[in-house]
Amino acid sequence: MSDPLQDPGFFQNPYETYARLRAASPVQRVPTGSAGRHSYLVTGYAEARAAFADPRLSKDTGRFFAGQPSRRNLHPAVSQTMLASDPPQHTRLRRLVTGAFTQGAVEQLRPYIQQVTDELLDDWEQHGQADLVEDLAIPLPVTVICEMLGVPETDRAEVRRWSNDLFAAGQPDRIDAASHAVAEYMGGLVDTKRHSPDDSLLHDLIAVRDGEDRLSEDELISLAVLLLVAGHETTTHFIGNAALALMQSPDTLARLRDAPPLIGSLLDELLRFDSPVGIATFRYSTEALTLGGTTIPQGAPVLIAPGAADRDPGRFPDPDRLDPDRDAAGHLAFGHGIHRCVGAPLARAEGEIALRTVLSRFPRLRLDIPAEQLEWRHTRLMRGLRSLPVSW
After folding, report:
1. What domains sit in the chain, N to C, each tagged with a CATH number?
2. What are 271-299's pLDDT values in tens digits?
3. N or C: which end of the chain has fewer CB within 10 A?
4. H/E element holding 367?
5. DSSP 385
6. DSSP letters of 112-179?
7. 346 CB contacts (<8 Å, ≥6 apart)?
8. Whole-angstrom Cα distance, residue 134 to residue 8?
């Protein structure tokens, strides 16, 4: 059996593959990668939710790969982030950044998010068409997280390119080079902020490290890289996927055209319908366990697929239909448990403002090419479009 997650049709439409795998078993051993490697893939909703919260599934990849030869050259700031840690280290690191992404903190950012959105859409007014990914879904969250971290405007295009390269599936050398470039850049930015303090989130983290000695230099740079990359990649795909889903659902789009603010109540269903995270980052079993009737041995890689779980008909009836009246609050697009996306409130605010504003200003928005001609990024971690041509 070949790797089902690398099939040519998987990136275009993973949901057929997910449904087939889930129907066979909600948890099963599948080949992944080369050299005879296998992982346990979780595609059922109940099983995915349980796996996200199971302390026997570790995120400490450094411990898992310790002593194993590696042909990769990832920078430690990328390979050993907060995402790749367990309590108590994870608890300590997460506590330091949570305050920047609370609902209250995000409310303070909403006027700035609206301003950036309006400025981007002002450029659309001069044309009859646009690329919704390139001209809105990418620059909006990049601009917001760079502003939060204090990344100068002149550096943001390069930062965006490095971030994109980190998800270049099947191109390890490109990924490794980008990891070093972005880590070295953030290291330099940390030095700049240390000598020229400002009110950025990055300076706040520096103050914690220098003032209370709670962050090592490596931890500081790693957190900065994680916030930079994770702070916009998933939101970019959320906005693009949601816009496409709406344009392919005429009844829902018509309802929103009459009342754009209703988009806020539809966010969970949009996240469930086409999750920006297809398969969550790597876990492994620290002891043998049984999940979904399948025994997972100790030391086995485990892949949890929110994209599959959120289309499980056992949890969401008629899952392949975008239903604006569905209560989808239990979706797993942001994960679950202690590793649930810390930036979820910010992502929701950016998605809501972007979608509401574009539908208000361009009520006749429509897809400009046949949907089957759209190109999707070739990465099983993210589910996102390379571009989304629209007109009005």
Report:
1. 4-391 (1.10.630.10)
2. 999 999 999 998 999 999 999 999 999 99
3. N
4. strand 366-367
5. B
6. HHHHHHHHHHHHHTTSSEEEHIIIIITHHHHHHHHHHHT--GGGHHHHHHHHHHTT-TT-HHHHHHHH
7. 101, 106, 109, 144, 231, 235
8. 24
- Residue 289: partners with Cβ closer than 8 Å, 6 or more residues away: 54, 56, 57, 295, 296
Give the span between the Cα atoms of 107 and 172, in whole angstroms: 39
3 CB-near residues (< 8 Å, 6+ apart): 30, 31, 32, 33
Q: How many of the other CB atoms lie within 10 Å of CB of 173?
A: 10
pLDDT for 37? 85
- For residue 338, with 0-12 CB atoms within 10 Å meaning exposed, 13-18 middle and 19 or more buried, which class applies? middle
H/E stretch holding 201 reads helix 201-212
Cα(310)–Cα(314) distance, rounded to whole angstroms?
10
Nearest to 41 by CA among 17, 60, 16, 62: 17
274 phi/psi in degrees, rounded to 5: -145, 80
Are 275 and 307 a contacting pair, CB within 8 Å?
Answer: yes
Q: Rounded CA gap, 178 and 168, in Å?
A: 10
Instruction: Record the tokens describing residue 212, joined without a space.
Output: 């209370």
303 vs 299: CA distance, rounded Å: 13
CA angle 377, 140, 155 (to 5 degrees): 90
Instruction: Of 272, 289, 253, 276, give the one whose Cα is nearest residue 362.
Output: 253
Tokens (6 digits) for 237: 């795909």
**Residue whose entry in the numeric block shows the structure tokens 């659309």:** 124
Looking from the CA of 194 toward its CB, the CA atoms found within 13 Å total 14
Residue range 299-308, pLDDT digits in tens: 999 999 999 9
139 and 164 Cβ atoms separated by less than 8 Å? no
> In Å, how far from its chain's centre is CA 92?
22
CA torsion sign, 357 to 362 to 367 to 368?
negative
